[in-house]
């Protein structure tokens, strides 16, 4: 090793880590290397130091080294770390990603550094820049960090082709990849090295892990907190535990599975304790907000960060002494990565707590905790022959050269492992499609058309860039969630119904980026495709959950007490006594009258119009089975069969067990994929994905307004196109495990998996209906409940009372506090106007009028509305204030409502709700 480097290393390290000892020589020898090691194992320096040595020996022209990461935030962290080495060794380093300014980009071209940190997406842009391509010809070494994050996504597929395009510029280069511990390093290596000679170095040392799964019982204080924050008492119990854990530790990361959950949890914690020093961190927040949260946390000004996967990679955010996972992490790989953030070095213990929710969640969390401790990670699900990524790469090749022969482009793409099985016909068909949508010329090779620039640079990221619509409940005037543009495109007509947050809603009106809805009823409502975007629970996890159920049931059957069964569970799984007790109680309640669905028994139970198929086969296999059964029964019975699945059950509406058994008998395992291929194009899931892929292939503009398009017509226009082919390909890779479903059906036919029928709703079945379908499983939401929510909203709406008689009184108050016959406390006049609480100018307008001052036309218009409002208040008192609190209800509509003879309060409030609904539905036609 170069003496200069040895001197600098001595400043930083006293002794080499295990990964450094194992990687130095293979990298110095020029080998392609995949290094896998747990978080905190010193992977970065392990691969960089030998590369620094090679650079010092040869000092090639810049840019000689590319360091590619999956996150911009990783680049920020790495720049700080590598700058320490560059200052001492004399090489230049810079960062290039989406936030890099134009000035910085210009400087990178005019004075290029030796070492460039970048993202997978920015490589795409660099490969088509004339001046940047000239610099990339000097690349000798490429490092890909966190390669496991790329291997099972289309971002990774895109990168594999980009690396082949880079080789076209600079010849071959040494490729070194870093990965956290993965389930199948061989699969990752094959993915990234594409059959080239390489060495896999597993530097995994046994890291000390301290994991516990908790499911706290609510205390009296939790019940009081629940009332204060309008949440369930079990949620309040989890909230209290998180609050106490953050207070007790120096630095805690609290991971949630969704961005929405992170925001809600943070908000509730701040309501609980406004002085608790916490921040939120997720991908939808601005760069400045995220960086500030990281800095404040590292400086220990903030004790806790509520975050998503945005902080589970190796960003240096200081010393973390606790990781809290809110609800089951759903996947071992996810939790392993997150847990590694605590005790971010091999000599420290990684301490983690999973705060589980319902009983299914506790079982699942227990399995994932055990598997994490044992290092049993899932293998990646790799995308093969992704046509949308291929379309973008073909355009990149056409833009890199004025005209590239089709055969040459095909050879470049085929070198990448995801496309090694791509036929020349498949490639040529896609080329012809790109020509048909006016992106390419194909005469004498591939050449770009004018529209190619906008398409290529607008689609460098394979992450869907989907606009969302906020869903507003008009009865309570509160947001209930959000919907992706593709779903809105399909269900954008007034009267359409859909399910969100477990409840059915009817569309009243779409206005800009808001969807106004009212409560509806029925299981036949469409279910937004994004509801399935949670990380899928693997089959192996669900099967072990089934096995635990069976073993607990057998133990209870043999005479063990619930306490003994819970104690036995704690010997095998890292559980608190409360969590273990809840697991046993769950199984015990099932054994009282019903069979236990487990890893060897598929139980079908009926309850009213619902049939629950208990199947411990994970998210993707159950979803494949659900859609297979629904498609066949819908075709045979001539009606739509609704279904909903989770990792442990499938729920159908109006289906008989004998109908399902008949399908198991009649159809072969190999029929599953062919049936789904025919049925999927009619589903919301397909339409949602279709529009995303149509964007990435270039058939639809990225800025298209999907609330005004007919998705079915677009699909029909492209029914035999690569868009449909790739949509199915993506769904079968990411959303449906047809291979597992085929094995399940084969096991049923062979008698290895027993099918058991039972009547009535069991506790495990009820859990599915409660948490999956919520109010749909109960009787339709009654008008009385809707009116109660609506009435509560109106009575708590603040309005401003202004005295029109003296002009000296103006106050804002909730409508419920308005007297039946209100009077001005200054002059005792009944001439009080009721206006919007923010209309503070109302008092000034009245005073100007009383003093005889000149008024503008706009002020006269407002004065007229104020007077009419006062007239309503004199005649009807507080009832006028209640009516005027309705959205969009002015004095004229108020007068019309109050003039009616209402026999009951319900009739009165129904009229106000009807007026609101009418206003929302017709608002877009009003000029003001």
Low-confidence sequence ranges? 771-782
Q: Give the distance, in angstroms, between the N- and C-terminal Cα atoms.
A: 76 Å
Summarize model confidence as the mean pLDDT. Answer: 86
- Provide the structure class: alpha/beta
Please state the overall shape, judged from the principal axes of the Cα atoms: globular
The Rg value, from CA coordinates, equals 31 Å
Q: How would you write the strand order of the largest sheet?
A: 3-4-2-5-6-1-7
Query: How much of the sequence is in beta strands?
Result: 5-15%
Question: How many separate domains make up the residues?
Answer: 5
Task: Compute the number of helices.
Answer: 38
Largest sheet: 7 strands, parallel
Helix content: 40-55%
Number of strands: 28
Note down, in words, how this protein is organized:
The protein folds into 5 domains: 3-202, Rossmann fold, CATH 3.40.50; 209-374, Rossmann fold (3-Layer(aba) Sandwich); 387-458, Arc Repressor Mutant, subunit A (Orthogonal Bundle); 481-533 and 597-781, no CATH class; 788-925, no CATH class. The N and C termini lie far apart (76 Å). The protein has a 7-stranded parallel beta sheet, sandwiched between helices. The longest helix has 20 residues, at 618-637. It is 49% helix and 15% strand. Mean pLDDT is 86; it is low at 771-782. With 928 residues, it is an alpha/beta fold.
């Amino acid at each position: 090793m170069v003496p200069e480097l040895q001197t600098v290393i001595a400043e930083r390290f006293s002794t080499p880590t295990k990964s450094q000892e194992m990687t130095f020589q293979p990298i110095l020898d020029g080998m392609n290397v995949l290094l896998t090691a747990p978080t905190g194992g010193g992977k970065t320096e392990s691969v960089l130091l030998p590369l620094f040595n090679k650079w010092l020996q040869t000092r090639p022209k810049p840019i000689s080294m590319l360091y590619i990461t999956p996150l911009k935030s990783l680049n920020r962290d790495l720049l700080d770390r590598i700058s320490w080495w560059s200052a001492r060794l004399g090489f230049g380093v810079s960062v290039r990603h989406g936030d890099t300014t134009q000035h910085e980009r210009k400087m990178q071209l005019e004075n290029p550094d030796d070492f460039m940190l970048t993202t997978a997406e920015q490589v795409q842009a660099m490969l088509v820049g004339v001046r940047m391509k000239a610099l990339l010809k000097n690349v000798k070494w490429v490092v890909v960090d966190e390669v496991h994050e790329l291997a099972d996504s289309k971002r990774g597929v895109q990168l594999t082709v980009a690396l082949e395009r880079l080789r076209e510029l600079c010849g071959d280069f040494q490729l070194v990849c870093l990965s956290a511990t993965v389930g199948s390093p061989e699969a990752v290596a094959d993915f990234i090295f594409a059959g080239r000679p390489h060495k896999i170095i597993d530097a995994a040392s046994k890291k000390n892990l301290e994991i516990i799964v908790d499911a706290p019982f609510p205390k009296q204080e939790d019940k009081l907190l629940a009332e204060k924050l309008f949440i369930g008492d079990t949620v309040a119990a989890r909230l209290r535990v998180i609050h106490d854990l953050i207070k007790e530790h120096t630095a805690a990361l609290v991971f949630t599975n969704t961005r929405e959950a992170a925001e809600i949890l943070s908000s509730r914690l701040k309501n609980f304790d406004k002085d608790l020093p916490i921040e939120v961190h997720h991908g939808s927040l601005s760069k400045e907000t995220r960086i500030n949260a990281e800095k404040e946390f590292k400086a220990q000004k903030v004790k806790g960060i509520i975050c998503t996967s945005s902080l589970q990679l190796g960003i240096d955010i200081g010393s973390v002494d606790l990781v809290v996972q809110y609800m089951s992490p759903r996947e071992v790989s996810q939790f392993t990565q997150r847990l590694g953030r605590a005790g971010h070095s091999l000599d420290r213990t990684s301490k983690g707590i999973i705060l589980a929710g319902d009983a299914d969640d506790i079982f699942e969390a227990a399995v994932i905790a055990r598997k994490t401790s044992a290092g049993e990670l899932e293998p990646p699900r790799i995308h093969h022959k992704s046509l949308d990524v291929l379309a973008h790469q073909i355009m990149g090749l056409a833009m890199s050269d004025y005209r590239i022969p089709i055969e040459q482009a095909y050879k470049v793409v085929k070198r990448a492992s995801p496309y090694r099985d791509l036929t020349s016909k498949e490639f040529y068909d896609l080329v012809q499609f790109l020509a048909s949508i006016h992106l390419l010329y194909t005469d004498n090779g591939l050449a770009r058309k004018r529209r190619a620039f906008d398409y290529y640079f607008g689609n460098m990221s394979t992450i869907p860039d989907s606009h969302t619509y906020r869903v507003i409940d008009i009865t309570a005037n509160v947001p209930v969630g959000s919907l992706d543009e593709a779903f809105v495109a399909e269900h954008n007509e007034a009267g359409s119904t859909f399910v969100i947050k477990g409840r059915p809603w009817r569309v009243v009106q779409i206005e800009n980026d808001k969807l106004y809805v009212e409560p509806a009823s029925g299981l036949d409502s469409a279910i937004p495709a994004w509801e399935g975007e949670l990380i899928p629970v693997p089959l192996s996890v669900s099967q072990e959950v089934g096995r635990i159920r069976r073993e607990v049931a057998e133990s209870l059957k043999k005479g063990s007490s619930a306490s003994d069964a819970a104690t036995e569970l704690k010997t095998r799984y890292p559980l608190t006594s409360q969590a273990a007790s809840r697991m046993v109680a769950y199984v015990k309640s099932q054994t009282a009258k019903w069979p236990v669905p487990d890893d060897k028994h598929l139980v079908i139970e009926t309850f009213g119009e619902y049939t629950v198929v208990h199947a411990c086969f994970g998210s993707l296999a159950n979803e494949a089975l659900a859609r297979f059964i629904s498609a066949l029964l819908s075709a045979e019975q001539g009606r739509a069969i609704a279904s909903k699945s989770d990792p442990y059950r499938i729920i159908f509406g109006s289906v008989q067990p004998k109908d399902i058994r008949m399908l198991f008998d009649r159809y072969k395992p190999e029929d599953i994929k062919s049936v789904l291929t025919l049925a999927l194009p009619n589903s919301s899931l397909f339409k949602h994905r279709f529009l995303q892929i149509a964007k990435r292939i270039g058939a639809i503009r990225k800025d298209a307004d999907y609330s005004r398009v007919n998705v079915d017509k677009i699909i029909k226009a492209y029914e035999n196109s690569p868009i449909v082919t790739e949509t199915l390909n993506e769904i079968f890779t990411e959303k449906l495990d047809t291979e597992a479903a085929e094995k399940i059906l084969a096991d049923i036919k062979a008698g290895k998996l027993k099918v058991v029928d039972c009547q009535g709703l069991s506790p495990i079945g009820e859990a599915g209906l409660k948490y999956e379908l919520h109010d749909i499983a109960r009787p339709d939401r009654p008008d009385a409940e809707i009116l109660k929510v609506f009435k509560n909203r109106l009575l708590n709406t603040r309005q401003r009372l202004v005295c029109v008689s003296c002009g000296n009184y103006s106050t804002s108050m909730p409508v419920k506090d308005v007297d039946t016959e209100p009077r001005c406390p200054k002059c005792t006049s009944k001439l009080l106007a009721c206006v919007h609480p923010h209309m503070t100018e109302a008092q000034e307008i009245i005073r100007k009028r009383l003093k005889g001052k000149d008024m503008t036309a706009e002020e006269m218009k407002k004065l007229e509305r104020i007077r009419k409002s006062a007239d309503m208040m004199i005649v009807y008192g507080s009832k006028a204030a209640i009516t005027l609190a309705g959205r969009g209800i002015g004095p004229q509509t108020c007068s019309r409502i109050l003039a009616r003879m209402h026999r009951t309060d319900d009739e009165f409030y129904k009229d106000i709700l009807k007026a609101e609904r009418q206003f929302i539905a017709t608002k877009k036609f009003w000029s003001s």
